[in-house]
Amino acid sequence: MAPEVMEQDHGYDFKADIWSFGITAIEMASGTAPYHKYPPMKVLMLTLQNDPPNLDTGAEEKDQYKAYGKTFRKMIVDCLQKEPSKRPSASELLKHPFFKKAKDKKYLQQTLVAIGPSLETRIQKASKRQPGASGRLHRKETGEWVWSSEDEGEDGGSSDSDTDSRPMNTLASMGSSGSDHEESSEGDPSPVNLVLRMRNAKRELNDIRFEYAVGKDSAEGIATELVGAGLVDSRDTSVITNNLQKLIDSKETLKVVTFPLSSGYSSNETPDDKALIGFAQISITD
Questions:
Q1: Which run of H or of E encompasses 79?
Q2: C-alpha angle with apex 261: 258 to 263, nearest 5 degrees?
Q3: How far is CA 122 from CA 65, 117, 119, 125, in A?
Q4: Tell me: the pLDDT tens digits for 175-218?
Q5: pTM of the full predicted structure?
Q6: 198 and 148, same structural domain?
Q7: Averaged pLDDT for residues 217-234
Q8: Are residues 95 and 154 in the same domain?
Q9: What CATH code is carried by the domain that includes residue 146?
């Protein structure tokens, strides 16, 4: 976020977008945003009080990004001027030497498309799912993340009225239709209905509801899907996997498990297993 937007000096304009472009350039080169290790409030303070960040701001080693030339670095510096009027406009930016040296469409076709995997290979790769993953996670038009039956078509088995109304970043549990149960063999165990309760990025408590098909799903596969959907921090994959597996293994006697998260908690928070600050909870529901 541009400094003038943080200070609320004036409304958001295209000069703020130029600042964002400079930050994006750093992210693409280094893999992380400047000050990414700090909590939001400290990032705000560093942005307002320090000199503008550059490519080497987040470097952990000397000359870590020496492979990037002066032209690229100069473009970042031009975009990350604290005074909005000193930043280039979009038209001026296109005239920057960095963009003038950009390869044309023909080069990209020859270099990227020709040597890349074929369309058939990409389709096959995209259709593959991790072993043990349910494959039932998809996003509805309403913005909800939904676990649906593997046998459901695009129209879905249950109507929208059957699902609970949930925030955009939660999962709604969709039951299979009656015909699905008739088609399944009598020996198949009923899926386990679970709820993962944890705080989101806004520190709000969310219930993420899903099913676990014993013999088909795996704890690691479910956890990976949650991370892929942006509902869980990747650092918590292992602890969620372990505790979900623990609950499934002891589902006859154990109904709830509360555990600390590897992602921790904000600097202004105190860990609390009751309020689920720095903790999460998985429970089996009826």
A1: helix 70-79
A2: 165
A3: 31, 6, 5, 5
A4: 333 444 444 445 567 888 899 999 887 888 888 888 888 888 89
A5: 0.42
A6: yes
A7: 87
A8: no
A9: 3.10.20.90
Distance set, CA 69 to CA 19, 29, 53, 111 (Å): 20, 11, 17, 22
**236-283: per-residue pLDDT in tens?**
999 999 999 999 999 889 999 999 999 888 888 888 899 899 999 999
Q: Comparing C-alpha atoms, which of 84, 23, 87, 82 is closest to residue 57?
A: 23
Expressed as residue numbers, the domain containing 105 is: 3-113
- pLDDT band with cut points at 50, 70 and 90 for residue 32: confident
Same domain, 52 and 181: no
Same domain flag for 33 and 75:
yes
* Contact indicator for 18, 87 with CB cutoff of 8 Å: yes
d(CA 152, CA 262): 35
Residues 155, 60 share a domain: no
Q: Which two tokens stand for residue 122?
A: 């990409």
Strands 145-147 and 171-173: parallel
Yes or no: say if 162 and 174 are a contact pair by the CB < 8 Å rule.
yes
Overall average pLDDT of the 123-131 stretch: 56
CA nearest 66: which of 24, 30, 102? 30
Only one residue has tokens 């320090």, namely 50
CA distance 197 to 134: 20
Contact 241, 223 (CB under 8 A): yes
Gap between the Cα atoms of 29 and 101, Å rounded: 17
